[in-house]
Design brief:
Length: 224
């Protein structure tokens, strides 16, 4: 049997249920903060979780709206910042590659030929009298005044010169059978014609021609 309520007394009310914080809102904030360390990858998840948590908070009345907003805003900010960084980096890399391809490096100094001791295979007066003489020639016309690189070989002897003024001539010598001879010349300018040839005892045995910017002229004379 119930007891009559006394005047001035209020009926007993159960305590209000404790409100909980939305878990996705917390996750959005954490992912947004870690976006500084992950190059913006987790920032994208922060944006997704932030928007989802805001929708859940509106429906079920859970706490964490401020946390969700902070995670969402931070996620958008870091995503945009890192996206801009990667776009600028990629654009700069592509521009650098295109610039390098369009503007190959030029030789800073054009060397003049000096009188040096003959290298193995190079002709001397005595050798020319008793053996055969090889002449390697490179000529530039129509604006070609220098070679970026000149590479020549006589069998296993390989030499290379850079920044050489044209015309160019190299004399070699050999006894007995003719060795394998090779001449490679690259134009150092953006116009002109490069002619290259190999002579043995004054007779042209191989010759070629290359036209245009940084063109390569090459000739090979195998053993007969």
């Amino acid at each position: 049997m119930g007891y009559p309520q006394q005047p001035g007394q209020f009926p007993y009310a159960p305590p209000a249920p404790e409100r909980r914080t939305n878990g996705l809102a917390v996750a959005a904030l954490v992912l947004g903060l870690t976006g500084f360390l992950t190059c913006g990858f987790t920032s994208i998840l922060a944006v997704v979780f932030g928007h989802v948590s805001l929708g859940q908070i509106r429906r079920d009345g859970t706490d964490g709206r401020g946390i969700a907003l902070a995670g969402t805003i931070l996620g958008w900010f870091l995503t945009g910042t890192w996206l801009l960084f990667w776009v600028l980096s990629f654009t700069g890399a592509i521009s650098s590659v295109l610039y390098t391809a369009a503007s190959p490096s030029q030789p800073a100094v054009v060397r003049t030929r000096l009188g040096v001791s003959p290298q193995p295979g190079e002709a001397t007066g005595a050798q020319q009298q008793g053996g055969h003489k090889v002449t390697l020639e490179a000529i530039g016309t129509d604006g070609a005044t220098s070679a970026m690189n000149i590479t020549w070989s006589q069998d296993f002897t390989i030499k290379q010169e850079s920044g050489v003024a044209l015309p160019y001539s190299k004399e070699l010598a050999f006894d007995g059978d003719q060795p394998r001879l090779y001449l490679w010349v690259q134009n150092a300018g953006d116009k002109g014609v490069i002619e290259c040839r190999i002579k043995v005892d004054g007779k042209v045995i191989r010759e070629s021609k290359a036209t245009g910017a940084y063109a390569v002229c090459q000739v090979t004379a195998d053993k007969p």
